[in-house]
Amino acid sequence: MKSSSIPNAVCAALLLFGCTVGPDYQRPAPLGKNPLPSVFAEVKSGNPGKWKQATPSAHLPRGAWWRIFGEAELNRIETRATADNQTLAGFLARFEQARALVNVSRADWAPQVSAAPDINRQRTSANMQSGTSTIFNTYNVPLNASWELDLWGRVRREVEGARALAAAAGDDFESAKLAVQAEVAIDYFTLRSVDSQANLIRETIKSYQRFLELTQDRHSSGIATDYDVSLAETQLKSTEAQLPALELQRAKLVHALAALCGQAALGFAIAPAHGIAESAAPAIPAGVPSEWLEHRPDIAAAERRMVAANADIGQATAAFYPKVMLNGSAGYQSIHASNLFTWPSRAWAFGPSLQLPVFTGGRTTAQLASARAAYDSAVASYRQTVLAAFQDVEDQLASQRLLAEQLGKEQAALVAARRTLEISITRYKGGLITYLEVAVVQNTALTHEQTVVQLAALRQSAGVSLIKALGGGWNTDGLRPEAR
Question: What are the residue boundaries of the structural domains of the chain, listed by start?
Fold first, then answer.
């Protein structure tokens, strides 16, 4: 090998195999010094599963998880909200922006070429050299190029960070989409609960109207008193007064669902449900393995931001090392436009340049300290996100268990209240008790009826919240779509 080729070989080796300064990313312990729980505290039976080291999997498909509720109208609204929600449109645009920034950072790998033609008319000083001034034109058509040799991995770290932030933006979009879908489902079930309560009140009004007529007839016969008639009328009117409040609540829920679907309230309608809804919450396995938390997009996004913050440390470290540039220019120069593009007018220059931070007033050191602090902040944010995820799941598992228990007891109380009401009506018709005693039992039965309807909706909403807490992607057999 010729001696002149040795520097070329060294340069090529440095270019191809340049080191990457700064720490390589290593996932920190999710809960710091505290161990990860092997199961959820609320899991009392079933298959609790085991924790495994998490790998961000927010990109895996979640599917139309809301279909497990078997509500055709909910399916329609969810589809519209997913497609037209403006909050999601904003998150999607930010994701596209982050993807574009990856290409911006990757551009630093390639040579940068620019053209800057110019025409100057200038006058030289009469007090320089010849003692006379000269006026002339200068025509310049250069093509300039520069290329940074990424010897220390500054550009590689920049691209690494941009890719991580783009992935985090994608996770943010998935998190927002899951939140919108869950909000739609919760509002929908609340709406159906309001419909059921309104239907219950209408049926109760009809019943109270019949009792008022019965009491008036008994009063005409001298059996019932004025007090009984007044009490029956008061009970009827107070029950009728509950309908406007329910209608207002329904209107607000419809308006909220319209906004979630990216549509004005005008022209958006959901037909009222007839009868009292009795659909139960979907069967959700109690033994949900804690590893499913890795499917949560907010946890994945928090880890991506740790990767980006770690890459920033590498960039800040690279600032301590020399920056090697290959610079070149070529073009035409002349003082006459007529011969600008002739062979003698050609000009070129080529050579490397070296930038070495000899003294920066502590700027470089401070930037590195800032990058390290930003990474520590990202780690703390990641750990807090994991803790919040565990809390969220534990809350929803507790809601599933305790709401089911409360609903069971409330249904038993309702059965007893209905039986007591039948007995009191029979006794009242037989003249054994006053209407006041009937009214008390009627109010008690109505309260239990309303509570059962409300608890059923709360159980469905808690099911939605649990699915959201585990990152979505639920099926009736407890498997995610990709696990089928």
Answer: 38-122+134-483
